[in-house]
Write a sequence for this structure.
């Protein structure tokens, strides 16, 4: 029974990683930007969410407002900073690193250094029995939300006009622009949506992993691994990669507590050496 | 040419005279600057001369530092074994990174080098029995013949100067010119019959070796090693040193290293918010001096000479 619980833990963490990696992957796919600020979006989402919950007591409100705030932040970063260095990876990476530091310090200033754990929403604060063990319903809800987001993103990308534009942009942004697609708007939109998803992950992850200084680096790194494993620019890759890394991380911490990160990185290195573009990458 | 010789002679006089003129605190600070200048130059061999961006350069710096600290403190070995072992580990790790990462380019390469370096950080952080985990490993002694600040300074000065000479010679050698050709166009160099992958691989290993040397010197300077040595922040810091100074030059990264370390020294004595300041420096450098201080100087200089 304990294995079912560990597996569910891994899957629910994997869903959080999917939320992060989906945005990271789309942003890279379309703009070739390596966004090191992505982990900060996650953490800002969690912190802003915690403040909203503390002030209003509503988890639902936090779940809506915090991601929107972060989406705006992402849009501003794209439009006024990253855009100037289109396709110049070194300046872009440095800019995002600069913002990572700036945000990290500001968050430390505002929310302090102590870990904050967000309260679970009332509807999902209980637990259900699985065999002879109890399992928190919150984690199950998290898995459901992850699947719903995956479904929405898939529908958006495959079935809507905007999604078709996005796919065209990922394939060749220049040609897409020549065909009359407003690539400039698309860039800002995708960046904002990526930031929004990361912040959504922050609020959703708040009750289980909490928010603390340094979490921005940790989740950014895990999201990178997901994207490397799954393949850049691919939503399916982000989902499968997220689940894989979530499970590996969870079981790694149980079996090899001293070398926890190893259980993630060794598979990553193996995948890199056989499929340099990741499992579903097209680059 | 005469100007360059004059500059070198002047620099030599300044650096040799320095410990006899300034207080020992500044001798220590200059030692640190020299070490990071070497670290930054080693990264610029990759970025500036080979066209390979790396965000994991601290791995080589840190593994050499950790190897030395573990061998000396935990296993009580002499520095004559520990020091070469540190360099060897950096070179070996450079080869492993190159094998795994060299298929990628651009920001994908940045991401892979970052992730690989974080593996090494994870080992240092997690393997408490050997590395002391988060607390690091204190208690490293400097070798007896350089136990005081001034003699250690001269050891670092000598090694960094020698490394610079080697790097300059390397860049001007046919091999170095081939690297710069690869930076400009891989496909053309391939068409000319150069084995591009092998050149990049060797450049990666050499860069790792010099980063390892810098790490080895720094661990003796610090007498302490912690996972910070390996952290992505350190990789980013050395990257900003290269860029703030000027990519594709050797003097630039050295100046960048001096600028960042002096700023760090000044700002962190004034405020807790060094990270915020560093972030602003990153953003400002990217926006206002994308070609670095050397670039700014050249632009001014060239502008004045135009009619």
């Amino acid at each position: 029974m304990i294995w079912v619980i560990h597996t569910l833990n891994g899957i629910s963490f994997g869903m959080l990683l999917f939320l992060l990696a989906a945005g990271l992957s789309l942003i890279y796919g379309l703009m070739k930007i390596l966004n090191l600020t992505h982990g900060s979006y996650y953490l800002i989402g969690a912190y802003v969410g915690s403040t909203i919950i503390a002030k209003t007591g509503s988890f639902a409100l936090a779940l809506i407002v915090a991601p929107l705030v972060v989406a705006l932040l992402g849009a501003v970063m794209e439009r006024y900073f990253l855009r100037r260095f289109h396709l110049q990876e070194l300046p872009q990476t440095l800019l995002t690193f600069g913002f990572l530091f700036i945000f990290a310090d500001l968050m430390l200033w505002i929310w302090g250094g102590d870990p904050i754990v967000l309260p679970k929403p009332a509807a999902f604060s209980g637990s259900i029995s699985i065999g002879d063990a109890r399992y928190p319903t919150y984690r199950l809800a998290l898995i459901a939300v992850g699947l719903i987001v995956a479904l929405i993103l898939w529908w958006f990308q495959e079935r809507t006009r905007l999604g078709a534009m996005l796919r065209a942009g990922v394939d060749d942004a220049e040609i897409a622009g020549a065909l009359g697609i407003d690539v400039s708007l698309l860039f800002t939109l995708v960046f904002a949506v990526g930031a929004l998803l990361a912040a959504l992950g922050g609020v959703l992850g708040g009750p289980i992993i909490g928010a603390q200084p340094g979490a921005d680096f940790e989740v950014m790194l895990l999201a990178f691994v997901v994207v490397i494993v799954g393949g850049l620019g691919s939503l399916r890759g982000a989902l499968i990669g997220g689940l894989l890394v979530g499970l590996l991380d969870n079981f790694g911490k149980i079996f090899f507590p001293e070398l926890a990160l190893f259980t993630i990185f060794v598979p990553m290195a193996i995948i890199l050496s056989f499929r340099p573009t990741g499992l579903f990458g097209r680059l | 040419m005469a100007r360059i010789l004059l500059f070198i002679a002047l620099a030599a006089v300044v650096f040799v005279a320095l410990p006899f003129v300034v207080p020992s605190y500044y001798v220590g600070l200059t030692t640190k600057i020299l070490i990071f200048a070497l670290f930054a130059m080693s990264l610029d061999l990759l970025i500036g001369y080979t066209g390979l961006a790396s965000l994991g350069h601290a791995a080589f710096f840190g593994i050499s530092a950790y190897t030395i600290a573990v061998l000396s403190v935990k296993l009580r070995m002499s520095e004559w074994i520990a020091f070469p072992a540190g360099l060897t580990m950096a070179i070996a790790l450079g080869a492993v990174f190159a094998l795994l990462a060299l298929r990628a380019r651009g920001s994908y390469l940045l991401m892979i080098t970052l992730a690989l370096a974080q593996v090494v950080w994870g080992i240092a952080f997690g393997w408490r029995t050997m590395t002391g985990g988060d607390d690091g490993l204190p208690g490293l002694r400097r070798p007896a013949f350089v136990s005081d600040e001034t003699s250690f300074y001269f050891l670092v000065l000598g090694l960094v100067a020698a490394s610079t000479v080697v790097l300059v010679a390397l860049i001007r050698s046919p091999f170095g010119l081939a690297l710069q050709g690869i930076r400009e166009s891989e496909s053309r160099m391939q068409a000319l019959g150069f084995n591009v992958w092998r050149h990049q691989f060797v450049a990666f290993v050499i860069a790792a070796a010099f980063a390892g040397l810098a790490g080895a010197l720094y661990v003796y300077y610090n007498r302490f090693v912690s996972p910070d040595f390996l952290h992505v922040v350190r990789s980013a810091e050395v990257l900003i040193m290269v860029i703030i100074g000027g990519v594709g030059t050797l003097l630039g990264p050295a100046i960048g290293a001096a600028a960042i370390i002096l700023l760090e020294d000044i700002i962190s004595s004034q405020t807790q918010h060094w990270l915020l300041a560093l972030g602003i420096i990153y953003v400002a450098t990217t926006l206002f001096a994308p070609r670095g201080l050397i670039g700014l100087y050249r632009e001014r200089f060239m502008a004045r000479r135009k009619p």
